Amino acid sequence: MSIRVRAVEAADLVPWSTLYAGYREFYRLDDDPEKVRTTWEWVSTGALGMQGLVAVDENDALVGLANLRWFARPSTATVGLYLDDLFTSPAARGTGAGTALLREAAAIAADAGASVVRWITASDNATARSLYDRHATATPWVTYDMAPAAR
After folding, report:
1. 50-53 long-range contacts, CB within 8 A, separation 24+
2. Which residues of 127-143 are buried (b: 16+ CB within 10 A; e: fewer)?
3. Which CATH number, 2.30.110.10, 3.30.70.1130, 3.20.20.70, 3.40.630.30, labels domain 4-135?
4. Angle 102-106-108 (CA atoms, 0-180°, nearest 5)?
5. Could you give phi then psi for residue 118, rounded to 5 degrees?
6. Any idea where the N-acetyltransferase domain is (predicted)?
7. H helix or E strand, kind and range, residue 107
8. pLDDT(1) > 80
9. In the 8-state DSSP scheme, what is residue 61?
10. What share of the chain is helix, strand, coil (3-state, %, to 5)?
11. CA dist., res. 130 & res. 47, Å (int)
12. Which pTM does this prediction carry?
């Protein structure tokens, strides 16, 4: 399978939404078309500094997606590129789609002079971690989430 990566385009709405719904299902998130639509708006318009990439096969069918955004790194006085979401359709796993998306993220980061491409994944996501271990170094950092406080 020949894979090409490009920025999302308006015509990608339906297939991108299907892929993103698959991503949400994989991570056992609620089936919420409104959240999918909101995320599409962000990645397709660049809102909140986000940008969307898609992996397409030789038939121009979308087989994967990556959602990216920039973040400041005060400790190093640099900018990094955060990979919020990476997902490939089950049929496209092992075809190089994930690798192509990671390589494009790395190229975007390099072109902008970023110091790192960073992401998190579930500790039990062995398939993704196998891919990630070939392209990046796992860090010793532990992630925390804190709910916003009411005022």
Report:
1. 50/84, 51/7, 51/8, 51/108, 52/7, 52/8, 52/16, 53/5, 53/6, 53/7, 53/8, 53/101, 53/104, 53/105
2. ebeebbeeeeeeeeeee
3. 3.40.630.30
4. 115
5. -130, 150
6. 3-151
7. helix 97-111
8. no
9. -
10. 40, 25, 35
11. 31
12. 0.94
Residues in CB range of 135: below 8 A, 6 or more apart: 99, 102, 103, 106
pLDDT tens digits, residue range 30-84?
999 999 999 999 999 999 999 999 999 999 999 999 999 999 999 999 999 999 9
What's the farthest any 2 CA atoms get from each other in the chain?
Answer: 53
Query: Phi and psi (nearest 5°) for 17?
Result: -60, -40
Domain boundaries, given as residue ranges, for the chain: 4-135
Q: Look up residue 17 and give its two tokens.
A: 């939404």
Handedness of CA 97, 100, 104, 110 (dihedral sign): positive
